[in-house]
Amino acid sequence: MVAIVERRMIVPNVHLLTVEAPEVAESARPGNFVIVRPDERGERIPLTIADWDTQAGTVTSIFVQVGASTAKLARLKAGDTVPSYAGPLGNETEIGSFGTVLLVAGCYGLGSILPIARALKEAGNEVYALIEARSSYLLYWADRLQAVVDRLIVITRDGSRGYKGHVTRLAEILALERIEPDRVIAHACTFQMMTVAAQTRPLGIKTIVSMNPIMIDGTGMCGVCRLTVAGETKFACVDGPEFDGHEVDWEEFLARREGYRAEEIEPLHRSGCESRF
Amino acid sequence: MSKVDLVRRPMPKQEPAERVRNFDEVALGYTVELAREEAARCLTCKKPGCVDGCPVAVDIPGFVGHIAAGDVRAAVRAVKQTNALPAVCGRVCPQEEQCERNCVLGKKGDPVAIGRLERFVADWEAAEGAGEPQPLPRPSGHAVAVVGSGPAGITVAADLALRGHAVTMFEALHEAGGVLTYGIPEFRLPKAIVRREVDYVRSLGVELRLDFVVGKTRTIERLLETFDAVFVGAGAGLPWFLDIPGENLNGVFSANEYLTRCNLMRGFRFPAFDTPLKRSARVAVFGGGNVAMDSARTALRLGADEVHIVYRRSKTELPARAEEVENAEEEGVIFDFLTLPIRLIGDERGWLTGIECRRMELGEPDASGRRRPVEIPGSEFVMEMEASVCAIGNSPNPLIPMTTPGLEVGKKGNIVASEDTGATSRAGVWAGGDVVTGAATVISAMGAGRRAARSIDAALSGAPEPSDSQT
Fold it and tell me: Do A89 and B213 touch (CB under 8 A)?
């Protein structure tokens, strides 16, 4: 059982969750995730770690409210507890001296990309970040990221800040910004990461993506998080979660993400009178 | 001496038609009268073969004799001397291949129902309440970390706690018990019983840390800074699949996933519990072991119209316990023997719709001594199915081998450990159970735990390694 230090909506539908978990904080590395169970009847869901503080013993994640479990998490407040918070899980992001690295982030990735940016800078890379949101009011942590990276580039669907559009413009933006990355790392929703991989493939830029399948145990036992990478079945929880985006079978991955869509949402679509929350 | 009684007392069970509609335990257990009658059949051999057949050497004639004499409390003490998990072992051990196989009564009739009697003893204690609490031994001053709270870990933890060592048991999941909790279904091993056994181990002073993933939250190396010894019983790892096209379609499950959703996450009670479990009308289970039987019977209880076990060999080669096969048959599971799935077929949205199979015939015996199944060309056919569950085994859990430098790992990803002592290539680290052997039985993991505990205790006490002749 861990205590919640802070839970707040930082932009519409996107929440920050900070808990007291000193052992997790001590072992956390960029790219790791945790498995959280919101309450005693809740699912085990993976959340990517966005930040941690070894001194305070706290760990922070950013999550988007999509289904029943994240709705439960979104109702928690400081002082509440969650029964399970296990981690850090998954392999850490490969941090090397790559030269120029472009980080692409959307959705919860604006949070989880931050520790990667820090580590890459410390390793001596030139680091650029491209962050995307539907509109400028949905951006968060842009200032924190700006303080770390060499240049922050923003793209919004409505053009309210930075470039207008979607990461489908990635190749064009790279040319306009005169950035020639040696490596791209994307943390975003599946569709955005797939788009990034499609954009960088013709440019021949190695592109790492952080896969976010359905998980249960998250420790290499159940096998539900499997995906096909370079024609082989891999398990995101122990082989990943980061893989080469040019080798991922995206179509299969998207289909597998849909496996329980109805059940994820079903509990939300009730009148409230019979709600079990 | 009275006439030898060759007929074993049957154990009451739920009727098949009724039990396929619930997740309650199928077998109801002996009454005191039935237990006494059954126990009275024991011939109390001078050289009891049954004890030799038990991986943890339970004093079988001793406890059976106490039941026959009507002193169940004494029977409880006799069993618990060597077995921390009698209620579990009485239910899931393959007694027919172990203790009961060596029973002399088996030569002319039915062997004594040792498993049922062990279960009776444990359930009697649960109902009547534990007797005098065991006096805890004087603290040894040594601290031991046990990784995993499954059968191996629980045995090590209990044995070492009884020797006065301060034991902390680390469990990666949110409930203790390992495969007893996530793998074996409620109808075969009620979770209340697992909790009871875990509580017993805790009552010996063992500290339990849930949601603690050794290898990730803390490495083995870090644990060795504060613990004098570490036992790794991390259990099963990633499921094996058949390696045929279509295995990543929706509706295709590993048994680990299917059973974990149901047992650990209580998916059979969705939406009262949040983790969903598909209720499919037509389900095919691949494999012929106990896990396959558990998966098929789970699918029936979830309301499937038709559940098939697809097995490439014949009924004679089924590795599952005869009792479980019989239960599955009674409940209406359809067995497709000599059938090999070769391709999973999906619709345009990526959902399973059918399974292409090929018929097999039995050829010459293979390395395992079983007749090798040989494919019959041109015998392909398609079964319409909404779901499939692959129950053909799994590799050992990879997290500790991945994160512990200097720990020798075998070809299959298993930790290499001495069969006699559980000692690994790393000083201070012992291992046992599925993480060493690959998927095996509860009792073999407990046996490995027992031997490792003895070796750890000897190492900590500075005593010479004990001989292992009694196992």
Answer: yes
Q: Do A221 and B238 touch (CB under 8 A)?
A: yes
Query: Least CB-CB distance to A222: which of B210, B256, B350?
Result: B256
Check CB contact of B260 with chain A, cutoff 8 Å: yes
- Which pLDDT value is given to residue B2? 57
CATH of the domain at B166: 3.50.50.60
Are A107 and A84 contained in the same domain? no
Chain B neighbors of A69, CB-CB under 8 A: 274
Tell me the three state secondary structure of residue A247.
coil
Q: Would residue B164 count as lying in a domain?
A: yes
Residue-wise pLDDT for B15-35, tens only, equals 999 999 999 999 999 999 999
Mark whether A195 and A149 lie in a shared domain. Answer: yes
Half-sphere exposure of B186 (CA within 13 A, CB side): 20
Residues of A with Cβ-Cβ distance to B398 under 8 angstroms: 220, 238
**Cβ <8 Å between B241 and A235:** no
Residues B154-191 pLDDT 10s: 999 999 999 999 999 999 999 999 999 999 999 999 99
Answer whether residue B469 shows pLDDT above 50: no
| Contact indicator for B448, B163 with CB cutoff of 8 Å | no
Cα distances (angstroms) measured from residue A211 to each of A25, A110, B150: 22, 15, 30
**Number of other residues whose CB lies within 10 A of the CB of residue A201:** 13
Count: domains in chain B: 3
Range of the domain at A162: 100-259
Give residue B73's domain range.
16-128
